[in-house]
Design brief:
- By secondary structure, the chain is α+β, with helices and mostly antiparallel strands.
- It contains five helices and four strands; from the N terminus they run αββαβαααβ.
- The protein has a four-stranded mixed β-sheet.
- It is globular, with a radius of gyration of 18 Å.
- The N and C termini lie close together (11 Å).
- The relative contact order is 0.21.
């Protein structure tokens, strides 16, 4: 559990799980038992909608412009080749229901036409990259993993 807390503390934006493989242990207590291992792909992004609250300051840029959107589509297509089975994002763990409802809007094609969503929801890396990648992989859910009650 400490490793997960450390990863979340770094502000990892995406964690993608996929590509199972079998591992047979040679330990005499586990001979002839199969264990499934998972490959993990960690993707770290800057905050696309950066209000200047991060320790590292970055220049603002228009993430919604055509060039940036094309690049995000290319990144999502590259990640799709990895074939992730789960995507985890930096979102409060206890707000999974809200994340689910936002992802449902995204999957239905109504996300960006919803004028009730603020700039945070329009320009955030979760929605612009994680949701896009999850939808390309036909995933039912994007998982909230940010847990701060330590």
């Amino acid at each position: 559990m400490e490793k997960i807390k450390f990863i979340v503390g770094l502000g990892i934006s995406l964690i993608l799980f996929g590509c199972s493989s079998k591992l047979v242990s040679t330990n005499k207590d586990y001979i002839n038992k199969d264990f499934t291992t998972k490959e993990v792909l960690l993707i770290r992004t800057l905050h696309f909608n950066n209000p200047g609250a991060d320790v590292v300051k970055t220049k603002s840029f228009d993430i919604l412009n055509t060039e940036a959107q094309t690049e995000l589509e290319e990144i999502a297509e590259s990640i799709k080749k990895y074939n992730p089975s789960k995507i985890f994002v930096e979102w409060p763990y206890d707000e999974q229901i809200k994340l689910d409802s936002l992802y449902d809007l995204y999957k239905s094609g109504e996300y960006f036409s919803n004028d009730k969503l603020s700039g945070f929801y329009q320009k955030n890396e979760i929605f612009l990259l994680a949701f896009r990648t999850a939808k390309l992989n036909n995933l039912e859910r994007v998982y909230a993993i940010d847990y701060n009650d330590c």
